[in-house]
Fold each of these.
Amino acid sequence: MITEAKGQRSGAGEARGQGERPLRFYARTAKNEAEAIELKEAAEVEGLEGEIAVLRVQLRAALKKEKRDFPVILKGVEVLMKAVATEYRLSPRARKDLADNFAAAMNSIGDQLLPVGR
């Protein structure tokens, strides 16, 4: 990452997305103080959980419409699938959750195949 003040590369330990430079870049697009506050709040959000939730709500709304726009619905499903896959690839917490869920599923299958007491 290039620092603002000196134009030198920062240390390798600095994680991507940290610091205020990206926020300052986008802050110029805020139309008013309320948008600037929302931008700052959005910058503090980690992961894609919120975006995935919004996609699911929008997809459900599209499916509830009487006249369904199938190309839009298919695109929504595609975007949702990519967001979920990205979340699992990027998030250490999501990896742990996936591993925990997988372990629980395997234990459940094991319990059904070899019940305790038999």
Amino acid sequence: MKSDKVLIRTGGGYCNVNDHVKKYALSECLIIWRTMQQKHITFNEAVVNLLQMHNADEQLIQDYQEETTDEISDLFELLCSLMKQKEFGKYLTREQKSKLNSEAGLN
């Protein structure tokens, strides 16, 4: 912390936490999602794996495990699924989208 700002240490110095989140949040979520898919694990398990991989303090890992819930994992998986569907939708024609919406009862 510097004054009233939270800074993140980066390769080139320090970055404001808000700027860091804006720049890296999506890519970090994709890393977690990919880890979940490859290892067939939950969001919470993927986070713990990443914390361990980056040599996080054991107390931090234990605190995370005590405070997190399955609902958080479920919500992350739902959001990733929705993003994946949205991305998939970019490559469909209008007719294909209409047919899928009709089949899903969304029309």
